[in-house]
Design brief:
Layout: E1 3-5, E2 10-12, H1 30-46, H2 55-64, E3 68-69, E4 74-75, E5 80-81, E6 87-89, E7 94-95, E8 100-102, E9 107-109, E10 114-115, E11 120-122, E12 124-126, E13 135-137, E14 140-142, E15 147-148, E16 153-154, E17 159-160, E18 165-166, E19 171-172, E20 180-183, E21 188-192
Amino acid sequence: MPTVLTDSSRQRVSDLPIDRPIEGGPSFRFGLRLHRAVWNVVWKCLAAWTPPQFSPWRILLLKLFGARIHSGAAIAASVRVWLPRNLELGPSASIGTGVDCYNMAPIKIGARSVVSQRAFLCAGTHDISDEKFPLRVRPIVIGDDVWVASEAFVGPGVHIGNGCVLGARACAFEDLNEWTVYRGNPATIVKQRKLHKLKAGRLHG
């Protein structure tokens, strides 16, 4: 199947919008709509009600629908994934309860990164300068060791650098620097993030 190259991975041409929302027609092709309908039924019936310790089972279902998920990753039962094949999780990455992963374009989350409760990762928007109000999708890349805190918003095309922190209810519309703490709407720099290393023998008292 034909593909187009995006910033984070390859996305199928069949996944791209067909730009008809203002006319009352479908925004995506029938094959994708059918795929998503099947996925939604599978997730609601086999995953959405499962207890926390069933994360490996939920990850298996996502992989069966095309997600690329590395070892040690975790996904809560209440997570909403728009299209599994547009999701990539690095080693030990985690997505918390109520997160909305609106991945009309690919979303990549790096190793050991955490997306906390009810955060919204939004890879799509509309072109407000076009009278037809077409969809525009752009990939989101979240680096390694990132924390996207509770109810934060990450917009289309945003790249979050390694070690970055996006505070609770903050909104990121532009790229965020590595090892930097942000808060507010729009997100602004608070300070640099520094990690404290444990001293030798500290764990032994």
